[in-house]
Design a protein that fits this description.
- The chain is an alpha/beta fold.
- Helices cover 21% and strands 30% of the residues.
- It contains three helices and nine strands.
- The strands form two sheets. A six-stranded mixed β-sheet has the order 4-3-2-5-6-7, sandwiched between helices. Strands 1-9-8 form a three-stranded antiparallel β-sheet.
- Helix 3 links the parallel strand 5 and strand 6.
- The longest helix is centred in the first third of the chain and has 18 residues, at 16-33.
- It binds inosinic acid (IMP) and magnesium ion.
- Magnesium ion binds next to loops.
């Protein structure tokens, strides 16, 4: 069969074992810091769903979950910088310990918007756990309290991350090669 050469191909950057080790490390840090608390973990859809599912199974304190969906990229690989809430929260955030679970921080615009949005709801505490960080093109400062990996300035897919809704199901984190 003839290969379609223009189709981008995923090349493994972080294996499922490396991801699992990072998830274990993050869970240990979070277990230590949230002992005796009952936080709400807020997953940023859709990219964080796989990370969230793996992480929470390693947490040993009582917790609640909620999800929020933001739009920033639309189609393709560039952030539009115009962020809005597409699917809002159901839970009451006021007075609660809130931990946001994100797949990747790139320009920082999405997560800065979300942390500001949540901060206005007056949580007792507000922290960020991100699986990956691409600090190379940051447009606004972001503090990541729990970080899995700093990754190269490449477009990544797999383990929840997509390119035009493709590749989310891949168990490894991959770089898309042209
Ligand atoms: P930011 O607003 O530029 O920080 O982009 C953050 C959002 O864009 C993340 O929540 C991801 O959903 C998406 N994103 C950024 N970089 C990548 C990537 O390399 N692959 C897939 N999605 C990405
Ligand atoms: Mg995202």
């Amino acid at each position: 069969m003839k290969a379609i050469s223009s189709q981008p191909r995923p090349r493994t950057l972080l294996t499922r074992d490396e991801i699992a080790a990072a998830v274990n490390r993050l869970a240990a840090e979070i277990n230590r810091d949230y002992r005796g608390k009952q936080p709400i973990l807020i997953g940023v859809l859709k990219g964080s769903f796989m990370f969230m599912a793996d992480l929470i199974r390693r947490l040993d304190f009582p917790l609640q979950l909620d999800f929020i969906r933001l739009s920033s990229y639309g189609r393709g690989r560039q952030s539009s910088g115009r962020i809005k809430v597409v699917q809002g929260l159901r839970c009451e955030v006021k007075g609660r310990d809130v931990l946001v679970i994100e797949d990747i921080v790139d320009s920082g615009l999405t997560i800065a918007f979300l942390l500001d949005y949540l901060g206005k709801k007056k949580p007792a505490s507000l922290k960020l756990c991100a699986l990956t960080d691409k600090p190379w093109r940051r447009q606004t400062p972001v503090t990541i309290d729990y970080l899995g990996f700093t990754v190269p300035d490449k477009f990544l897919v797999g383990y929840g991350l997509d390119c035009d809704e493709q590749f989310r199901h891949l168990p490894d984190i991959c770089v898309l090669e042209e």
